[in-house]
Amino acid sequence: xKKYILVIVLLLIFFPCQSSPGRDFLSAPYGGxxxxxxxxxxxxxxDIMAKETSTSMxxxxxxxxxxxxxxxxxxxxxxxxxxxxxSEDGTVWKxxxxxxxxxxxxxxxxxxxxxxxxxxxIYNPDIPSSAKDSFTVQGQMFKVEKIDDYTVQFTLPVKFxxxxxxxxxxxxxxxxxxxxxxxxxxxxxxxxxxxPKEIVGTGPFRLKEYRPGERLVFIPNxxxxxxxxxxxxxxYLDKIIYLIVQNADTSLLKFIDGELDYYSVRGSDYPxxxxxxxxxxxxxxxxxxxxxxxxxxxxxxxxxxxxxxKPFVDPVKLKWFTNLDFRRAVAHAIDKKKIIEIVMNxxxxxxxxxxxxxxxxxxxxxxxxxDYNIPKARQILKNIGFADTDGDGYIEDPDGNTVIFNLYTxxxxxxxxxxxxxxxxxxxxxxxxxxxxxxxxxxLVSKLTDSYDFDAVILGLTGGIEPHFGKNVWMSSGQLHMxxxxxxxxxxxxxxxxxxxxxxxxxxxxxAKRKLLYDEHQFIVSERLPLIYTALxxxxxxxxxRFGNLHPTSYGGAFHNIEEIYVIKAAGQK
Length: 574
Fold this sequence. Notes:
Structural class: alpha+beta
């Protein structure tokens, strides 16, 4: 399970499923490298602390869960657990672990690691883990206990519908991290200054090198447990390299020049790349609407900063941002058609719901839709007393305060910067004075999760097919409840209802009844507008035609079976 994280992948599963050290170079397609790019350095190598894709990008190669999702039909399949049983009432689950799994330092994986991950990390009150939100039902935690070295039992307080899928949660090694927990230092463990040799997982690759601002290098885990259908130890690739490239335009040039093997294609790139497919020997794949979400939101945090004893948000601005009609006016000023045409070159989809159409069953298309209508937006503002009373071109609130605020997004995302430009233009047509600034991604994340020092942000979230894994966003107590996080009690009736929906939905085993609950959640979000949605790009990506076992899927992407990917060698090449 991957909780929602800031921009980009809910839930991309890289690793499907016996191994011993050593690789037979005479009978299997070993060797070669895969070169990818990232727009930001990781903030950490600690999966439990991950709240953003710059970290999960690294940890997805290194760590695994008890289960995984089949990238073709999304069924839950065994992974570190080879089987399981469940009681008749659905509350007691026993997992029987594989006995041939080693950590990449050669130590044996066991039930102790699973119990440690849940009881000492996820459920540790001193560790601010987003995963905690997903493994808590009505404020109650799961009881996780060791039966024997290779059997773990989970006792749930109530039925938990997405339980098996949630067992994709990364498992971390007790033998490496117990000391950090006992010393109260886990939250700062496996930071970006850590020697890569210290980062221990069971996944197909391990981190070999990290040069800030330059690159990350992964090499095979020689102890990896999976084998190919022919019995070959996996993975096949010798190396995976991520180049740190600060913006997508540079990545595009590097892909065209042959420096990158993969490129996430923006709509504006399509007419440039499509004519080059055959000559440059790559293929563009279309996975339909992206799984994630893109939106603008305002800071509604009404608390006082304990360090400064000052409000996190200027009370004048807070009054605007918490006014539903103010947000409704903004919603009517989002020109989704122009965003799709200009930014995405027509290869996009207007977004209205809190889930992507690609989410399938749980997607609710019947939500409130806000047509692009500047006159209507002006009238809404006028009705609540916002008008340009002094003729300077900017509107004032009923108390005479000029409407001026800062709008942020991350500097590496050119599409999002372009979207910000379009939105800013239309908000200024409403008479709002909008100061736009693109920030380095990790700086922006710090504003959202640490200092809460922002007015408005354009951002995105990874998505998936299971609504519950967005709990850390939608529950009022959630770490990523971005507009007003970590509330002790819900501050509005609608937030209280969403809390209730998520607590009920996770216990409802009837899929049709679950859908009704999550449909209501999506409708409430469209009505109350904590996040104001923009548009989704088509999930386009280009991959060089030099890899074997490449079987892209809409859900899993190009490299869902990364351990099985290999470089096709030219005739006569060894």
